[in-house]
């Protein structure tokens, strides 16, 4: 079970990233968030959402969903100019625990204004 982001609905508002950072760090600490908006430099107005799970990165881009195993090299793409400053080092992030300490469930899901996040 995990959360799923629908890239067709996501408008890259960063509410999930703010909510997750707030939940995990008692402040709007984006580096503490395990879900993040990422933008590509090569394409104008292009963005997606990356979720760090225990073993995978789930990348929701306009062209669809991609799942990459951690350690498969995706971390190395960072810092090579492919993404902007909103992309924080993935290895520093804690994996998503589905807000296990919240009886109401995932906070990011609650905050997403366009219902792009769901549980699967
Ligand atoms: S479910 Fe909780 S821990 Fe996981 S990305 Fe959403 S806010 Fe963060
Ligand atoms: S809160 Fe929803 S719309 Fe906003 S960036 Fe996250 S998934 Fe996308």
How are the secondary structure elements laid out?
Blueprint: E1 3-5, H1 15-25, E2 35-39, E3 47-52, E4 56-61, E5 64-69, H2 74-77, H3 107-111, E6 117-119
Antiparallel strand pairs: 1-6, 2-3, 3-4, 4-5
One iron/sulfur cluster (SF4) binds at residues 5, 10-16, 37, 49, 111-112, 114, 116-117.
Q: Percent of residues in beta strands?
A: 15-25%
Q: Percent range for helical residues?
A: 10-25%
Bound molecules: iron/sulfur cluster
Structure classification: alpha+beta
Tally of contiguous helical segments: 3
Q: Which word captures the global form?
A: globular
Show unreliable segments.
none
Count of folded domains:
1
Number of strands: 6
Q: Tell me the distance between the termini.
A: 6 Å
Rg of Cα set = 13 Å
Spatial strand arrangement across the major sheet: 2-3-4-5
Q: What's the rounded overall pLDDT mean?
A: 84
Largest sheet: number of strands, sense, barrel closure? 4 strands, antiparallel
H/E series:
EHEEEEHHE
Annotation keywords:
globular, binds iron/sulfur cluster, alpha+beta, two-stranded antiparallel sheet, 17% helix
Summarize the structure.
With 120 residues, this protein is an alpha+beta fold. It has one domain. It contains three helices and six strands.
Would you give an account of this structure?
- The protein is α+β, with helices and mostly antiparallel strands and 120 residues long.
- The chain has one domain.
- The chain is 17% helix and 24% strand.
- The protein has helices spanning 15-25, 74-77, 107-111, and strands at 3-5, 35-39, 47-52, 56-61, 64-69, 117-119.
- Strand 4 and strand 5 form a beta hairpin.
- The radius of gyration is 13 Å and the shape is globular.
- 24% of the residues are buried.
- It binds iron/sulfur cluster (SF4) (2 copies).
- The site of one iron/sulfur cluster (SF4) has 15 residues, from helix 1.
